[in-house]
Amino acid sequence: MKFMFFFALALIGLARPSFAQDLQPAKLHRLSVGDTVPDIFFLLWNEKAPIKLSDHTGKLVILDFWATWCSSCVRMFPKYDSLENQFSGQIKFLLVNSVRGTLDSIPQLQTFFRRWQTVKGKPFPLTTAINDTTAFKLFPHIYIPHYVWISANRKILGITSAEALTTGNIQEALKGQILKEPIKDDRYDRDN
């Protein structure tokens, strides 16, 4: 009887659906400016299939680590939408909500996006990754918002706070230039 129980558990484990974070390499280490970012996967809010970082090849990608309770994060969202329009097709903001970093839950995210639609009268416009664990391991941090600037060829051009998010810095990053802004260094390595 015990054998059947353990056999059934093993089958359930093999049959479970694979989430984006399960597709990541087992050994991840903190990345820094100048490093190449692996082709990581993200599970998106309200999307069935995960995306890869390489889905945005040829664009400047700015990862924005955020949380529903972070008012300074939320205040920046209209600026991202505006910058994506201004630099049409050259830049992509990817909001990243990390499980470990935010303690947000799916019900909290549902409430946030529902409230956004009610107040703004339209769905949330920005691409949002949820339940992240991989990107958080690659770019550990304590304070949010936390931005990681990734070039068209997946090189890290900067790790910054919100003050660095300027048109001038975006223009430099689009040229593949490492940002002159100081590196945001509130990282930690506990449990990584």
Automatic annotation (TrEMBL):
SUPFAM superfamilies: Thioredoxin-like. Residues 1-20 form the signal peptide. PROSITE patterns: THIOREDOXIN_2 (PS51352). Residues 31-175 form the Thioredoxin domain. Keywords: Signal. Pfam families: Thioredoxin. It comes from the Bacteria. This is Redoxin domain-containing protein. It comes from Chitinophaga hostae.
